């Protein structure tokens, strides 16, 4: 994936929440807590393992599941993540996050709201109006990096606007005067690698199954969406290996489970990235910030970072516009989008994803059991509306096409339709009855017997494929 960025689960809130819950469960089961009562009566619990060690082991366990899926070549399961399902799922999750933000607005910091609005207006105006105008007037080939101008911290690029934002924050004392939440102290240097806690690996494997499924679903969903948008193909199995080994290697560092960074990926795409070379520069500059420049960003407001992500996700919110196109083309895909969207919003991510997949499979079963029938006849006369006149139908030749596999699930309906459709259109039995088998992807044993029964009914029957 050329534009894809993966990082600790904090970038995808659902994965972070699931990881936090799994972390708590493992701590309760295998934490080995020792209760201590101080002289003043304070009760504290000392654990033999720390939450960050559990999180790292969860990351390691999740990577094992993902690599195992790659080894077993289970990427074919990703075929059931259709575009409507993916679009409804991601849009539903985004609306959940928006709802969480809205209900917290009364308790929000006014200064943070003002700074966020100004940042979003700046980004939206620049990308929507200023960039097209400058592109037409000066024939600009390169996109204007408004994210870099405002804040490129999310990609590890220490841009000018970041410096200005941090400097203004420090000079105006936003944190102390307006209680504006800032990035805070960033320790310099890389964390020391540690081995995962193998004594809790069994519990972590159990707790990480759901996290692995959601991570794969989100990753493949984003990969499919961007591959379709930017017109290139992806290898699902390679994506599973990439995710899995990222998790396994990440398990040796104090990180949360690795997942796709929805916001950072969209920022990367909107910045004009076309190759994986951008990841090398982002990683190199991020390491530079971690090693030397991190402490300089301690006064940067977090709301500026959130504004970049919000504007970058604008195109994902516009996915609701797909419903207008889906409904007249395919009622089934329309229903899949609605079910995926509503279940993700009203239940939760895991429940919504599971229901969406089962519903998509149910539609496949329905379409297989009740496929379409096509009856072709020759008519030399057509009325003013472009329709065939029944009284002009030739009774010599009739062509019947079955659009779908002929299986044990639909042979009973096929036996009835042959005679029913013939009587509806043709006034007398045709001399030649041709069955077009070109749309039959598969015929099982019962399907073959059905074709034999049909052949016994008509005097002359031809099979065409």
UniProtKB/TrEMBL annotation:
Where the record annotates domain STAS, the positions are 397-465
Keywords (alphabetical) are: Membrane, Transmembrane, Transmembrane helix
Q: Name one GO cellular component term.
A: membrane
Q: How does it sit in the membrane?
A: Multi-pass membrane protein
User: What Pfam families does this protein's entry cite?
Assistant: STAS, Sulfate_transp
Places the protein is found: Membrane
- The transmembrane residues are 12-32, 52-72, 84-103, 109-132, 153-175, 195-220, 240-256, 276-293, 337-365
Protein name per Swiss-Prot or TrEMBL: STAS domain-containing protein
The organism encoding this protein is: Heterorhabditis bacteriophora (Entomopathogenic nematode worm)
**What lineage does the source organism belong to?**
Eukaryota, Metazoa, Ecdysozoa, Nematoda, Chromadorea
């Amino acid at each position: 994936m050329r534009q894809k960025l993966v990082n600790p689960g904090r970038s995808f809130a659902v994965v972070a929440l699931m990881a936090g819950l799994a972390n708590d469960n493992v701590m309760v089961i295998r934490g080995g807590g020792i209760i201590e009562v101080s002289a003043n009566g304070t009760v504290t619990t000392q654990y033999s393992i720390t939450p960050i060690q559990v999180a790292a082991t969860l990351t390691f366990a999740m990577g094992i599941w993902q690599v195992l899926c790659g080894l077993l070549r289970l990427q074919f399961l990703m075929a059931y993540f259709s575009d409507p399902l993916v679009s409804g799922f991601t849009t539903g999750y985004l609306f959940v996050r928006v709802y969480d933000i809205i209900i917290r607005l009364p308790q929000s910091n006014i200064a943070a709201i003002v700074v966020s609005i100004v940042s979003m207006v700046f980004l939206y105006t620049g990308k929507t109006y200023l960039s097209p105008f400058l592109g037409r007037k000066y024939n600009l080939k390169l996109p204007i990096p408004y994210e870099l101008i405002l804040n490129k911290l999310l990609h590890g690029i220490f841009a000018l606007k970041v410096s200005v934002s941090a400097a203004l924050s420090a000079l105006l004392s936003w944190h102390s005067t307006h209680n504006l939440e800032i990035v805070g102290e960033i320790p310099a240097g890389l964390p020391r690698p540690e081995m995962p806690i193998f004594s809790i690996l069994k519990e972590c494997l159990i707790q990480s199954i759901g996290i692995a499924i959601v991570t794969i679903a989100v990753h493949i969903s984003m990969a499919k969406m961007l591959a379709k948008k930017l017109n290139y193909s992806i290898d699902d199995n390679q994506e599973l290996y990439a995710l899995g080994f990222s998790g396994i290697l990440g398990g040796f560092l104090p990180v949360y489970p690795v997942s796709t960074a929805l916001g950072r990926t969209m920022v990367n795409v909107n910045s004009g990235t076309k190759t994986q070379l951008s990841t090398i520069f982002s990683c190199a500059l991020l390491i530079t910030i971690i090693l030397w420049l991190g402490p300089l960003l301690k006064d940067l407001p977090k709301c500026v970072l959130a504004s970049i992500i919000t504007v970058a996700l604008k195109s994902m919110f516009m996915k609701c516009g797909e419903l207008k196109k889906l409904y007249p083309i395919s009622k089934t895909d329309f229903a899949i989008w609605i079910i995926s969207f509503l279940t993700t919003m009203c239940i939760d991510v895991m429940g919504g994803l599971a229901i969406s997949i089962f519903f998509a499979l149910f539609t496949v079963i329905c379409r297989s059991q009740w496929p379409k029938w096509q009856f072709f006849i020759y008519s030399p006369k057509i009325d003013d509306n472009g329709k065939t006149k029944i009284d002009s139908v030739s009774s010599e030749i009739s062509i019947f096409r079955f659009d779908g596999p002929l299986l044990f699930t639909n042979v009973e309906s096929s036996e009835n339709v042959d005679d029913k459709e013939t009587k509806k259109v043709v006034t007398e039995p045709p001399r030649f009855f041709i069955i077009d088998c070109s749309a039959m992807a598969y015929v099982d044993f019962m399907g073959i017997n059905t074709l034999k029964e049909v052949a016994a009914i008509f005097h002359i029957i031809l099979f065409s494929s």
